[in-house]
Amino acid sequence: MITDEELDKFRLENTKVRIIRDADEANDVKGFVVAWDERSVLIRKQNRRVLKLDRAYTYKPLGEPR
Known about the structure:
The protein has one helix and five strands; from the N terminus they run αβββββ.
């Protein structure tokens, strides 16, 4: 699970992140961290839609390899 410190760093630096949900790269979500709580993270996608995702997924900066 991703820590509060990592999420805060992504939010403050306005880092675009990749959320890996399963083995298929087509199912990855790309966007910016907006907010979070104990169980979920709000991600704003490029089209400005907001998704609520589980914190158990893998969160990486978009520039890093999958």
